[in-house]
């Protein structure tokens, strides 16, 4: 049985940022699915020794890259039957991970990389020598580069990535209970509809427009779950939630059974992001029988249609308010979307994702 080394930098704290942590944790929770395909997953997460952590960003990044490669070479030297699966996203993390992939490949270890972003622009700031160099390294040394949407895959190919190595692998959901249509639908459809939002609290997620839409919406309450990730945004958010009183309830970060309980009781899942890769929260929403109100960001426009979702323009509070009003008024359409989504979600189980991987 081959070793599948899942490489990422584990980020602590209660946050939806770094959804790649959740993906890797789900992989490890489903080891038997990997073993059926001949792989034994394990996590490799490197941290700088405290004596080297000098708390100065640029120098810390250089030290981390050097020490991580040294540590990985020592741990995996001679492991030519292993597959090194690096999970990465943007900025200095991306640079370090591409250089690590080259080092592993030069040791004879097959390397795969999954890039968890919604746009190439979040990985590279503009053009330049560094971008061209990293894409050449990826094309030469990485066996397969996996993306969460065809759109981002195309952006990397146009930037020079070898098309034969670029693949799209959509995200998955991993909930504690299998989707039960009758049971889920029996929890929904009250006089007042319940909407839910899961994600980071920042401008790019469309939170400002979402709360502005709730100001002009009647017949809907909103549960918001997540942590602030933008400096200065929390004060505005707290003030707006206080103004909206009983219309909006902020739960902070939630997970596990509490999260699934909110999903089961919700009629609608909202995600008006400016940009996305393929948010797992939408898959959790459809598997829990929620209709979607979303923007056509990232993979969402590739995967969902008007049978699953009402699409709104990024940055438009008016579109969100109109979508909520339509679903409040047209309960037949709402129920059909909920039924369609429960059935459609069967294509995105963690088991099917692992088999495709």
From TrEMBL:
All residue ranges annotated as the Glycosyl transferase family domain in the record: 195-342
Originating species: Candidatus Ornithomonoglobus intestinigallinarum
A UniProt-annotated Pfam family: Glycos_transf_1
Gene3D superfamilies hit by this protein: Glycogen Phosphorylase B
One example GO MF annotation: glycosyltransferase activity
Stretch forming the signal peptide: none
Name by which UniProt lists this protein: Glycosyltransferase family 4 protein
Domain of life: Bacteria
